[in-house]
Amino acid sequence: MKKIDKLVIDAFLGPFLITFLVVVFILLNINMLKYFDDIIGKGLDATVLGQLFFYFAIFTVPTAMPLAVLLSSLIAFGNLGEHFELTAIKSAGISLVRILRPIFFFVVVLTGLAFYANNNLVPKAALEAYSLLYDIKQKKPALELRAGVFYRGIDNLSIKVNQKFQEDDKALKGVIVYDHRKNDGNKEVTVADSGRMYTILNERYLKFELFDGYNYIEGAGNEREVTGQRAGQNESISRSKFKKTQVVFDLSSFKLQTTDKKWFQGNRIMRNISELQMDMDSLKDEVMDQRLSYHLSRPTHFNFYRTSDALVLPPEVNKHKILKDSLNMIAYLKDKGENTDSATAATDTTKISVDSAMRKRQLVNKLNPITERKKKLTESSRQNRSIAAATDRPTKSNKYKALDSTALAKIDSVFNLRPPRDAIQGAANTARQVKSQITNSNSSIENYRKELTTFQVQWHKIWASSFACIAMFLIGAPLGAIIKKGGLGVPFLVSIFFFIVYYVFTMQGEKLAKQGNISVAAGVWMADVILFCVGLLFLRQARVDARLFEADFYSVVKDRITRWLSRKRQTNLKPG
Predict the structure, then answer these.
(1) pLDDT tens digits, residue range 469-494?
(2) What is the pLDDT of residue 470?
(3) Distance CA 449, CA 434 (A)
(4) Most CB contacts within 10 A, which of 174, 195, 278, 444?
(5) What is the phi/psi pair of residue 306, to 5°?
(6) pTM of the model
(7) Can you give the residue ranges of every domain in the chain?
(8) What's the count of helices (H) and strands (E) in the chain, helices before strands?
(9) Quick check: 531 and 498 in contact, CB under 8 A?
(10) Which among 187, 170, 194, 205 has a CA at the least distance from the CA of 245?
(11) What residues pair up with 176 in beta bridges, in sequence order?
(12) pLDDT in tens, 102-119
C-alpha cells in the first residue's frame, strides 16, 4: 500500500466508525420512541431491554450504512481539502480519481458487507425484535399499588391500600381485598387494619400478611350449595375476625411469555432473498391456480353453450395445467410405489411440447370455421335433394307439408310464450351466482398480485439499499473535495439534505410500484439511479476544480449573464 492510499484511508476510517455509531444510535432512538408506551411500566429487566435494543440496532443497519458513508466521505475529503492536502497531492500530478480509488474499493467491500447484513442478519434481527416486542406488549404492567386507588392488575382481584410507608415499602395501612374468582360479585371481602406485601419463590407469587381484620362472605348456605339450589332473597352472611392471616396470589400472568416465532416468519421484512423468491413463486402459482379454477368451472355455469364452446385456455394457464397434472401424476405414482422415471421424462416432454401443442390448437381453431362452413353446405345440399325428391311424389308432399307446418307452428308457439316467473328467477339467480364467483375470483387474484408486488419490492430493496453505499460515496467524496470544509458543520447539513432526497425518492418509488403505476425494479432503484447520476456530475465538477460553493463563482456567472443580455439588447436596438 502506498503512502497516499494509507493517508486517504486513515482520513476516512475514523469518521466512518464514529458517524456509523452515531447514526445507528439516532435511528435506534427514533425507532424505540414509537414503542415507548409499550415498554415503560412493564417491569422489564436489563437483559430483555438489552436484547430489544440490540436487535433493533441491527435492524437499522440498511439505513445507517449509506448515511454513514455519505457523511464520513464528506468529512474526510473536506478535511483533506481544508488542510490543502488535496492541493498538494494534485500538484504532484495525481488525479482526483486516483485519490478516490482506495476508498472506492473499501466502499465496495462495505457494500458486500451491507448486502450480507441485509440478507442474513437483518431478517433474523427483525424476527427476534418484533416477536420480543409482541411478548412485551402482551405482558401486564408491573405490580404497583398506589395509596387510595383500587388496583385491578391481578386477575379477578381488586386491592386498595389507604397508606404506604416510604421507610418500609412492604408495610401497608388500611387494606381492602375484593375476591372475584368465583364470578359472583363482591361477595368475598377482606378488610385489615395493616399488613405487609412481598413476592416469594422468584417473584412467582404475591404474599399478603394481614393483621387485625375481618373476612366477610356473603352467599347461600352450605346445604343449598351442595344440593344445587339457587339462593333466594334471604342469603346468609358470615364474618370471621383474625389477628393475622396470610393470603397468596399467583403472579404467573406478570411473567414475560415467549411466543413461538413461526407465527411471525411470514412477514416480508423477516425473509431473505431465497425465501422471498420461494414466496414469490408460491404467489404466482396461487394466481395461476385461481385462473385455472375459473376456466375449469366456467362450463358448469353456461350449459347452453357448452357443446359449441370453442374458447381455449390461455397459453400460460394451459402450461400451468399441464405441469400441475404431470406433478400430480408423479405424486400418485410415488404413492402407488411405481417407477417414476417414465413419469419424470413425461413431465419434461410435456414441458417441452407445450408450445407445439398450443400452435396445433391455434391452427385447429383457425380451421374450425372452414369445417363448419363445409358442414353447413353439405347439410343444405341434402335438404335440397330431399325437397326435390319430395316434389316427384305429389301424393305424399301435402301430408309432409302439413306435418311440417304443424310442428313449426307448435315450436313457434312455445318460443313465443312468455317465460314463467320461476324460469326468470332461476336465470337471475344463476347470473348473480356467476357474477359473484367472477368477482370473488378477480378479488383473490388482485390480492395475490398485491402481495406479490410487496414481496418483489422487498426483494429489490435488499439489493438497492446495499448499492446505495456506492451512490452515496460518489456524492460525498467529490462534494467534500469541492466544499473543502471539514468537521460536522457543513458536511452534516449537506448529508442530511441528500439523505432526505434519498428517503423521499425511495418512499415515492415504492409507493408507485405498489400502486402498479411503474415497474417494481424502476420504483425501488429510482433513488439509487438518480443519486448515482448526481454523484457522477459532482465527480466531473470536482475533477475540474469547480467552485460551486463559493460566492465568487456565482457572481461571475451573474456578470456573464448580464453582459450577454446587454449585448443582445443592443443588437436588437440597432436599425436594419
Answers:
(1) 999 999 988 888 888 776 667 777 88
(2) 92
(3) 22
(4) 195
(5) -70, -40
(6) 0.66
(7) 3-139+457-537, 150-254, 265-431, 546-576
(8) 16, 6
(9) yes
(10) 194
(11) 160, 191
(12) 889 999 999 999 999 999
